[in-house]
Amino acid sequence: MLFNGGWISEIFRSTYHALPVDQRQLASTLGYGRLQTWTHVILPQMIGTALPDLGSAAIDLLKDSSLLFTIGIVDTMGLASILVSNNFGVHQSEIYFAVALVYWVATLVIEACVWLAKRANKYYQLISGRKEGEAA
Predict the structure, then answer these.
(1) Residue 124 needs a FRET pair 20 to 30 A away by CA distance; which of 81, 86, 105, 115 works?
(2) CA pair distance 46, 128, nearest whole angstrom
(3) What is the pLDDT along the chain (136 residues), one digit of tens a residue?
């Protein structure tokens, strides 16, 4: 999980450095304070740029959660392994299929949330070349 935290912070660092310096200078020219510059200028552009990478990071975090089972925390995959061993291998394929279905649905939910966030973010629509109200 620390790895994913470092990865997400790297996503935000790179999106911050990808913003033109002119944006910060224009905000100070308009009389924005430091907080106003961050909330009205920098953060909306950073989030719009980082949305696709944040979606990938969320899906990777979901997939990496099965690694926690090796540490001792039982998750979905660990519970499936316990069920298979308790049933002496009977219905093994059905149990693992159900787990795969749970992961797949969770991934679809994350992708839908990222899609909705991208659709709602006006800056992302601007940099992706779509007009407001146009389908993805």
Answers:
(1) 105
(2) 14
(3) 677 788 889 999 999 998 888 888 888 888 999 999 998 888 888 888 888 888 888 888 877 766 555 444 456 667 777 777 777 767 778 878 887 888 888 888 888 888 888 777 766 666 555 554 554 4
Spatial CA neighbour of 17 closest among 47, 56, 46? 46
CA 31 to chain CA centroid, nearest Å: 34
- What is the spatial distance between Cα 6 and Cα 128, in angstroms, rounded to a whole number? 26
3-class state of residue 126 by DSSP: helix
Contacts of 33 (CB under 8 A, 6+ apart): none
- Taking the CA of residue 102 as centre, how many other CA atoms within 13 Å lie in the half-sphere pointing to its CB? 14
Q: Which residue in the block uniquely carries the two structure tokens 């994913």?
A: 4
- Residue-by-residue DSSP string for 34-67: HHHHIIIIIHHHHHHHHHHHHHHHHHHHHHHGGG
Residue 53 in tokens: 């990478």
**122, HSE (Cβ side, Cα atoms, 13 Å):** 4
Alpha-carbon span 26 to 93, nearest angstrom: 60
pTM to 2 decimal places? 0.56
